[in-house]
Design a protein that fits this description.
The protein folds into two domains: 4-132, 3-Layer(aba) Sandwich (Rossmann fold), CATH 3.40.50.2300; 146-353, Phosphoenolpyruvate Carboxykinase, domain 3, CATH 3.90.228. Helix 2 runs parallel beside helix 3. It is elongated, with a radius of gyration of 21 Å. Strands 6, 9, 10, 12, 13 and 16 form a six-stranded antiparallel sheet that branches. 24% of the residues lie in helices and 24% in strands. By secondary structure, the protein is α/β, with parallel strands linked by helices.
């Protein structure tokens, strides 16, 4: 099957820059407007579209005229995408924030070098063509980490969660090769968080009320919520972290865990998250499960509304034992708690094997 690459750029002469990809026998379709790209995909079967390249599409008064930028375009495409895989997403930019691009689903960010970008696209499309062209459900976009990817997929399939709850555009491998930068900051005001190295993330659809204002939660902080496997389906289907006392999909009530620490500072039930995956995945929160001879844990990556939570010390006895849980955070501020049901939005299911 011929591979089609879509390239969106306000440069009216962008077609002239596609020579390298065309020499590699890719079909390249260019657009000067984001809406034209969205319309093309809506009216096209899409099963030959392997890659979308775009600039930020914010120059020339586009923002002032209310035109979609690259992030909004990808959001629109992902809502209408009818395939079982996500295309390889590439940002070619002069100044866009790499973290913001990754948060919006882009696999690669290249600065100021169209030829370099085309070489990366060509290499990745050819390298992963055999696995990628299978178009198997949940086949992630062009990731080289077969071991982490395949083990995570087997475990996910065992959970029997319906496909419609997932967002393949948000799948991401967090091995050290795919994501070498470990420390990130997010939120307004910003908070540090550490990427979940050697975990694999499956994107999950966020709550409907946040879809129209998704740009707002991009300014929220990032944290993790470790949980038990039996809670996963309920969290994904309800699009929120479950509070103590909530009824799970299996009909049971979620019990209060770990002595309901710090409850005296809140008016009602509370949930806990952490900017450290090391802390969120401690055994008390994320139990270890044996599957196919391997040990797995699960956690959720979440957006957390700034100002909605309070920071507390760890509660697992590390301070008493003089052990630092995560060298990137003090033990005295590693646990965040909130009683606001609308303040934590899970957007990724993390699967790690150990």
């Amino acid at each position: 099957m011929m591979s089609t690459i879509l390239w969106v750029d306000s440069d009216p002469n962008i077609e002239r820059s596609t020579y390298f990809l065309k020499e590699k026998n890719f079909t390249v379709v260019c657009f000067n407007e984001t809406k034209d790209c969205v319309d093309y995909i809506d009216n096209h079967s899409g099963n030959d579209i392997r890659c979308i390249i775009t600039s930020m599409m914010e120059r020339g008064g586009r923002k002032e005229r209310g035109l979609m930028n690259a992030f909004q375009m990808i959001d629109q495409i992902r809502q209408n995408w009818r395939q079982s895989y996500s295309p390889f997403l590439v940002m070619i930019t002069t100044s866009a924030d790499e973290q913001a691009c990754k948060d919006n689903g882009f696999d690669v960010v290249v600065y100021n070098d169209r030829l370099k970008m085309q070489k990366i696209v060509s290499e990745r499309l050819f390298k992963d063509s055999n696995a990628y062209y299978k178009q198997i459900w949940r086949e992630p976009s062009l990731l080289p980490c077969a071991n982490l990817r395949e083990n995570a997929k087997m475990f996910l399939n065992s959970l029997n969660i319906p496909y419609e709850f997932f967002d393949p555009f948000a799948d991401r491998c967090f091995c050290s090769n795919c994501e070498p930068k470990k420390i990130w900051y997010r939120g307004n005001p910003s908070e540090k968080y550490v990427l979940p190295t050697n975990w694999y993330r499956y994107g999950i659809k966020i709550r409907k009320e946040y879809l129209d204002k998704k740009v707002n939660i991009y300014d929220w902080n990032v944290a993790y919520h470790g949980t038990k496997v039996r809670n996963v389906k309920s969290i994904i289907s309800h699009h929120r972290i479950m509070f103590p006392g909530d009824i799970l999909d299996d009909g049971t009530k979620l019990p209060i865990a770990h002595n309901n620490c710090f409850h005296q500072y809140f008016k009602g039930p509370i949930i806990y998250v952490s900017p450290s995956i090391k802390y969120a995945s401690q055994e008390l929160y994320a139990e270890t499960y044996d599957f196919n001879g391997k040990k797995f844990k699960v956690a959720f990556q979440c957006r957390v509304k700034p100002g909605s939570f309070k920071k507390f010390r760890e509660t697992l006895g590390f301070i008493q034992r003089e052990i630092t849980i995560d060298e990137n955070f003090p033990n005295t501020e590693i646990e965040w708690a909130t009683d606001d049901r609308e303040a934590v939005v899970p957007y990724g299911l993390l699967i790690g094997f150990f």
